[in-house]
Amino acid sequence: MCSNTNSGIQNAIKKSSIIFQGRVEKTLYVTPFVFLTKFNVEHYWKNNQQITTVIYVIGSACIESCSFSFLEGHHYIVFGEIENGFYRATTCMPSQELYSSDATQNIINVLNSTLGDPKPSRNAKVILK
Question: Which SUPFAM superfamilies match (predicted)?
Answer without folding.
Answer: TIMP-like
